[in-house]
């Protein structure tokens, strides 16, 4: 029986109670060990973690791993799998784990499955397909447009012939969004969101909302009649003690706006459409993405902090092992 170190990440305080503090509220722990050859699997699989997206929810996170041992006929040694994988170097998934075996597509690194071809890309693709009701020539405003969800929405909308207005939090991110094809791109930290939107000749018809708060309020004011709001997230409100109160909800009635909140996991019946269309577009370069890579599981706390504060330069990926 030979045991090896099995480092993990421990959360000591719920991150939405304030920003994470690497080393204090998010701790890299190396005390655990695992016997890779003999640890009981109870009909499941043992995987070695490879890549993660740094999202703190419960620390059961979406990531990519490689199967080392399997007692489940769905999986074989060497399979690359995607699903909820704990922040730990080696993970036992007991019984019948909800893991997806990833196809091997040339020119695609595994890290892309934590973003554009993972939950983020699925969210953009499915949310847009179900709720945008987009028509060629309309205008969409995308917040957090340099992130993995927003950047996918920008490209989907442009491919359908829409005008895209996009915001992000740094000049570097704005340059990336422009490369994706955004017609108007601005740094919301240095430019006035309301002035930008009110200055548009034809207003906006769709708001893809990743931030909530004051930006949502401004969008409600500047949306055209029968406009659509697709509520995907509210990151501006996650780490504040006093939530921003939206003061113009009467405009939802007067303008006959629709607001759709959604959770992508309840629409996984559409994943077949997603995987039939998007991976090849990414592999060919038609669909672009960017990554900010954090090397090592010990960088998890810093990666989560950067994402929460908007300091990551692109889609954040924690690289545990290069496969």
TrEMBL record:
<dbReference type="InterPro" id="IPR036291">
    <property type="entry name" value="NAD(P)-bd_dom_sf"/>
</dbReference>
<dbReference type="GO" id="GO:0016628">
    <property type="term" value="F:oxidoreductase activity, acting on the CH-CH group of donors, NAD or NADP as acceptor"/>
</dbReference>
<dbReference type="InterPro" id="IPR013149">
    <property type="entry name" value="ADH-like_C"/>
</dbReference>
<feature type="domain" description="Enoyl reductase (ER)">
    <location>
        <begin position="39"/>
        <end position="318"/>
    </location>
</feature>
<dbReference type="InterPro" id="IPR020843">
    <property type="entry name" value="ER"/>
</dbReference>
<dbReference type="InterPro" id="IPR045010">
    <property type="entry name" value="MDR_fam"/>
</dbReference>
<dbReference type="Pfam" id="PF00107">
    <property type="entry name" value="ADH_zinc_N"/>
</dbReference>
<protein>
    <recommendedName>
        <fullName>Enoyl reductase (ER) domain-containing protein</fullName>
    </recommendedName>
</protein>
<dbReference type="InterPro" id="IPR011032">
    <property type="entry name" value="GroES-like_sf"/>
</dbReference>
<keyword id="KW-0560">Oxidoreductase</keyword>
């Amino acid at each position: 029986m030979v045991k090896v170190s099995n480092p993990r990440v421990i959360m000591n305080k719920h991150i939405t109670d304030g920003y994470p503090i690497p080393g204090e509220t998010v701790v890299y722990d190396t005390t655990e060990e695992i016997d890779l050859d003999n640890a009981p699997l109870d009909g499941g699989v043992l995987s070695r973690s490879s890549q993660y997206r740094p999202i703190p929810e419960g620390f059961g996170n979406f990531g990519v791993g490689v199967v080392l041992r399997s007692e489940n006929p769905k999986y074989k040694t060497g399979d690359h799998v995607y699903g909820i994988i704990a922040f730990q170097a080696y993970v036992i998934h007991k019984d019948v784990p909800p893991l997806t075996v990833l196809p091997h597509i040339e020119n695609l690194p595994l890290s892309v499955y934590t973003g554009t071809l993972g939950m983020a890309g699925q969210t953009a693709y499915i949310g847009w397909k179900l709720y945008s009701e987009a028509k060629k020539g309309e205008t969409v405003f995308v917040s957090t447009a340099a992130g993995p969800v927003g950047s996918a929405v920008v490209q989907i909308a442009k491919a359908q012939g829409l005008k895209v207005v996009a915001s992000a939090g740094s000049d570097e991110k704005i340059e990336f969004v422009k490369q994706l094809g955004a017609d108007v791109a601005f740094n919301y930290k240095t430019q006035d969101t309301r002035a930008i939107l009110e200055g548009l000749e034809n207003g906006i018809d769709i708001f893809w909302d990743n931030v909530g708060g004051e930006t949502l309020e401004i969008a409600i004011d500047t949306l055209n009649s029968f406009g659509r709001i697709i509520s995907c997230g509210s990151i501006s409100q996650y780490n504040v003690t006093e939530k921003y109160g939206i003061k113009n909800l009467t405009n939802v009635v007067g303008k006959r706006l629709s607001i759709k909140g959604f959770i992508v996991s309840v629409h996984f019946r559409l994943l077949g459409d997603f995987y039939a269309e998007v991976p090849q577009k990414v592999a060919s370069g038609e669909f672009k993405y960017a990554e900010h890579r954090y090397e090592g599981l010990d960088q998890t706390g810093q990666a989560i902090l950067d994402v929460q504060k908007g300091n990551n330069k692109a889609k954040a990926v924690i690289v545990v092992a290069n496969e």
